[in-house]
Design a protein that fits this description.
mainly alpha; about 50% helix; globular
C-alpha cells in the first residue's frame, strides 16, 4: 500500500465502508497503522527458526485435540494458510488455548484468543469471562 499509490483509492473505499459500519477515523487509522506495522514487525522469538516457506502441516497433539474443537482448529488452519497469522502466532494461540481450556475451546473462543495474540493483547485474556466454559456459572451472582 505504501509503494503502490494506485491502490490508495481501494484503501479509501475500505475507509468509507468502515465509517459506514460505525468505526471512528481514529479506529480506522489505528487499524491501518497496525496492518502496515505487521510487514516490518518482529515475530515472537520463541519460534524464530521456522522456515519461511511452509513444507509441512502442524498436527495437533492428542492433548491439544482434547481441548480444541475441530471447527476452532479448522479456523486456525484457515488463518495460517491465508497468511493472516504466522507459524509463531499459531503456536502462541495453541499454547494459550490449551492453557485456558477447561473444556474444548469453541470457534468463538479461538477467535478471541487469536485476535488477542495478533493484536498483542494476550495478557488481557486472563480475566476474560468470554473464555469461561458455558457450564461454568461460578462467576454469576446467586
Amino acid at each position: 500500500m505504501r509503494d503502490d499509490h494506485d491502490r490508495q483509492s481501494e484503501a479509501d473505499d475500505v475507509s468509507v465502508a468502515l465509517r459506514n459500519l460505525g468505526y471512528s477515523d481514529q479506529e480506522i487509522s489505528s487499524a491501518y497503522t497496525w496492518f502496515l506495522e505487521q510487514f516490518k514487525g518482529t515475530p515472537e522469538q520463541f519460534f524464530s527458526k521456522f522456515p519461511k516457506d511452509r513444507s509441512s502441516v502442524r498436527v495437533l497433539t492428542d492433548y491439544e485435540r482434547m481441548y480444541i474443537a475441530p471447527e476452532a482448529h479448522g479456523f486456525l488452519i484457515k488463518l495460517l494458510n491465508s497468511a493472516v497469522i504466522t507459524d509463531e502466532q499459531l503456536e502462541a494461540i495453541l499454547e494459550r488455548a490449551v492453557f485456558f481450556a477447561a473444556e474444548p475451546i469453541t470457534l468463538e473462543q479461538i477467535k478471541i484468543i487469536s485476535s488477542a495474540v495478533v493484536f498483542n493483547e494476550a495478557d488481557d485474556l486472563e480475566g476474560s469471562s468470554l473464555l469461561r466454559p458455558a457450564s461454568d456459572r461460578s462467576h454469576l451472582v446467586n
